[in-house]
Prior knowledge:
Blueprint lengths: L10 H14 L4 E4 L3 H4 L1 H11 L2 E4 L10 H5 L9 H9 L6 E5 L8 H14 L2 E6 L10 H4 L7 H4 L2 E5 L4 H5 L4 E6 L3 H10 L3 E3 L6 H11 L3 E3 L19 H12 L3 H20 L5 H22 L1
Parallel strand pairs: 1-2, 3-4, 3-6, 4-5, 6-7, 7-8
Amino acid sequence: QDIIINSTPPTVNKSYVDPLLTIALKSHGFIINSFVEFDGEEYVKYYEETIGHKAWHLGPASLVHETIQEKAERGEKSTLSVQTFVNWLDTKRDNSVIYISFGSMCLFSDKQLFEIASAIEASDYDFIWVVPEKKGKENESEDDKEKWLPKGFEERNKGMIVKGWAPQMVILGHPAVGAFLTHCGWNSVVEAISEGVPMITWPVHGDQFYNEKLITQVRGIGVEVGVDEWVVTAFREMKKLVGRDCIEKAIRRLMDGGDEAIQIRERSQKLAKITRHVVKEGGSSHKNLTALINELKELRHGKVIN
């Protein structure tokens, strides 16, 4: 089947990326935070044969963290205590909460945040929404708040607005979370896959538009909001506004329990089970790690002899 990316990278993006890629391809190979069963064995083989460069799939790296405490310590310090999130999620039904996070670099305009908030309210699902640190502060004036939140939003809705940083792996690993609205940054993608959480995709820049198609069209574990604007960096304000109707429609496709949602959820959970196997002895990532270690030993041995 043909895969058509929703947007093309800006010209300036190519001039920035190409020199970096040229340098990167001079390395002995890439270590990839993914697993062969997700990227596709045939694609890995095609890459190595076509580019002439090695790639070792050793992920998901997030599965190194096993306990809640270890998961909580991934990244920065959480704004709220980990137990606050767990206690709140424990009161919710399975697959009833939307988790919304666009990473630490995506800074949307107030108008865009307002559209997201309006869609959340219209969909009427519980949510955890991680917003930039400047938003949601206690000393934020009501006038400032109303620029990005409908008036009375926090009083009317059943959810958590988190400023700054949240323990993403802990949240995604909780059975109450039924969907992840994400910018498709690779760490977020792999963490969602590891926990079997379907994704609502909203790419912004970089590799994210390619990741979106792998998620939605190739593996069928998510739905698209329908974004078609690729910016140079996530810091630049976008020119197009994604309307609340598009966002609400995507949320409902995953959360309303229709046939499509059931199939997506089943595929997501099947992949999550595979991730548990690939990092154990005999699994593809474990085998690749062993092969990498052996190759590095041989390289070192060769240098010593020479």
